[in-house]
Write a sequence for this structure.
């Protein structure tokens, strides 16, 4: 029970780390089928910008802008892949969708709970089940569907205690692939409106 409470609270605090949340900056005025709308946005990981009383940018340091003049729209039911060379800004683009970047110009609007799976799978010391629930209430049918969707069934059959097997610092070691599948199952179990997967293959 203590681990569950810690996970729930951790999810509330870190929000973006493979945890579904309703973003406080969400915009319910977006069209019903639009989940993400980025309009000619220039974004930065954070620096001081000077704006006038009408919120117009007076001065900014251009070299600190990480994404420039980006326009993008994602609608419900769409599967979109962002591809490019190493370091071109793919992960930064996902961070922008989670409102983690400073909007220097343009706008970033989203509507819906988000589940994010980062490049390095996030695993805590606890059972496989606890790592998937991450503080959420247990639903047997939903849990089984998440396991099936993320191809975890074979992994669990090989573990001595199935989904009650301890993993992490105080449990057995799991492979990189198993960590990735557990992280994906956590996102699926969250039943989010928007899924952001950073290099999941």
């Amino acid at each position: 029970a203590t681990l569950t409470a810690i996970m729930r609270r951790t999810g509330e605090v870190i929000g973006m780390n493979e945890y579904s949340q309703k973003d406080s900056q969400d915009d319910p005025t977006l069209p019903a089928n639009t989940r993400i709308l980025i309009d000619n946005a220039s974004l930065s990981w954070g620096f001081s910008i000077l704006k006038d009383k009408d919120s117009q940018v007076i001065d900014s340091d251009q070299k600190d802008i990480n994404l420039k003049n980006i326009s993008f729209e994602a609608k419900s039911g769409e599967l979109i892949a962002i591809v490019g060379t190493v370091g071109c800004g793919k992960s930064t683009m996902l961070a922008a969708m989670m409102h983690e970047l400073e909007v220097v110009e343009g706008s970033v609007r989203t509507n819906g709970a988000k589940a994010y799976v980062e490049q390095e799978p996030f695993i805590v010391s606890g059972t496989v089940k606890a790592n998937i629930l991450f503080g959420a209430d247990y639903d047997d049918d939903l849990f089984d569907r998440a396991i099936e969707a993320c191809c975890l069934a074979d992994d669990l059959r090989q573990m001595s205690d199935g989904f009650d097997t301890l993993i992490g610092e105080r449990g057995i070691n799991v492979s990189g692939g198993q960590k990735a599948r557990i992280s994906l199952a956590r996102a699926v179990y969250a039943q989010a409106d928007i899924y952001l997967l950073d290099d999941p293959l």
Q: What stands out?
A: Confidence is low (pLDDT under 50) at residues 12-17.
